[in-house]
Each structure stands twice: as structure tokens, then as C-alpha cells.
Design a protein that fits this description.
By secondary structure, the chain is α/β, with parallel strands linked by helices. The protein is 32% helix and 26% strand.
Length: 228
């Protein structure tokens, strides 16, 4: 699903974000990417959905070599991915239903498909009753659930999450993680960058730790391992 061979990322200012990363993430895995601030976690995530390109090495995502893609091919790569951010990134002038439906409209799903699929994923995240609400009418946790619904509505094979519980209280964070766990149990690969020690230690999933741009730990049922 995701394979990095000798991947490095050096930004234009000379900052080394990642250095000689070798990792393979298989279908159906749930992987936490952890490490101190500035270690390279977000760059790792951004490379996977091609917001950034590797400076060196090969990165294959869902059978496609990311570095070889032409710009017009990138949307097709991203159709197989669901992406969840810390700051939700919902469209403020659209309801919860419309935010989720928009992701299907982008890939030219039919009106009938949208009408069938959107209520289903709103059910999955427990917010069908908030379908007509706008983001400003919802709590942070509710907005993140809508963001997750939007990320999974097109049945992606991989869901990428960058600090999805960073703005949430501990109780809400656990509710969000239960949703991610349910998605993973249905066969979707999850790759999540996080600083949330409680979540990582409680979930006991695979943990990839990055320090000073390099992988220093890769454990099948790992713990967070840092005191932030």
C-alpha cells in the first residue's frame, strides 16, 4: 500500500525533514507516526498524499510511484486516499451533509449515489441528526467527525490523518479514535501522525517513531515513548 525506499526530503532552505526512510505499510494496517515536534512526522504524511515530493528515493502509494506522477495524475492518486487534518478544513458555508457530499461531487458521483452514501457515512460517525447544521453550529469533535465522514465517503483504501485529535479534549479524542478503529476494522489502512500519548498507548497499534528526520523505532504493538 505504502512503500518508501531510501526516501529523503530536503526543503529549499536546506532543512532536512526526512533522511533515508525505508518503510512498508501493508493493506489493513493501523500505523501511528510519532516523534518530537519538528522530527518529520508531518512531512512523512504530506509525502504520502503528494503535497510534498521526495528529494530522493522511491515512494509508492497504492501501486503508483508518487515521484513519477504528472500533475494531472495527482487527483487520481488522491481519489484512493481519505485525508483528515487537525483543523477540520470544512467549508463554512455548507452544511454537514453538503460538506460530505462535496467530496463525492468532486469525483463526479451521481446524485443518486450521493443521496444513498452520505447519510450512511453520517450514521457511521454518529451525526446523521446534524446533517443540516453548519460547522459553526457544531463542536470541535462534531466537526472532526464530519471531516472523517468526508474523508471516507468515497471508500478510500488509505486514510491519512495529521494530528486529528490535536484540538480535542481527551474524552472526545477517544470517541474519534473509536471511529478510526471501526474504519480500520472494515479493511481501510490508517496512517496517523499524532502527539497524543494517551491514544497511542491505549490503542497499541504499530508505531513508527521519527527523530531528527530518521526512523528510530518501528514496533508492531508500540507505545508513544515520549513525554511531551
Amino acid at each position: 500500500m505504502i512503500q518508501m525506499n531510501g526516501v529523503s526530503k530536503v526543503y529549499s532552505n536546506g532543512s532536512v525533514a526526512l533522511s533515508d526512510i525505508n518503510v512498508q505499510i501493508d493493506k489493513g494496517e493501523f500505523v501511528f507516526v510519532v516523534g518530537p515536534s519538528g522530527a518529520g512526522k508531518s512531512t512523512f504524511i504530506k509525502l504520502v498524499f503528494r503535497e510534498e515530493l521526495p528529494t530522493q528515493g522511491d515512494l509508492v502509494v497504492n501501486g503508483r510511484n508518487v515521484g513519477d506522477l504528472e500533475p494531472q495524475e495527482v487527483p487520481y492518486l488522491r481519489r484512493g486516499l481519505g485525508i483528515v487534518f487537525q483543523d477540520y478544513r470544512l467549508l463554512p458555508n455548507r452544511t454537514a451533509y453538503e460538506n460530505v457530499a462535496f467530496a463525492m461531487q468532486v469525483v463526479e458521483s451521481s446524485h443518486r449515489e450521493i443521496q444513498k452514501r452520505v447519510p450512511h457515512v453520517l450514521d457511521l460517525v454518529g451525526l446523521r441528526q446534524k446533517a443540516r447544521h453548519y460547522p459553526t453550529q457544531m463542536s470541535g469533535g462534531e466537526q472532526q467527525r464530519i471531516a472523517i465522514a468526508r474523508a471516507i465517503v468515497n471508500n478510500p483504501v488509505i486514510v491519512i490523518a495529521d494530528e486529528p485529535t490535536g484540538n480535542l479534549d481527551p474524552e472526545t479524542s477517544w470517541e474519534i479514535m473509536k471511529i478510526f478503529d471501526r474504519i480500520n476494522q472494515n479493511g481501510t489502512t490508517i496512517v496517523m501522525a499524532t502527539h497524543d500519548k494517551t491514544v497511542v498507548d491505549g490503542m497499541r497499534k504499530r508505531v513508527i517513531a521519527i527523530e531528527k528526520s530518521r526512523i528510530v523505532r518501528d514496533e508492531a504493538k508500540g507505545v508513544y515513548g515520549y513525554e511531551d
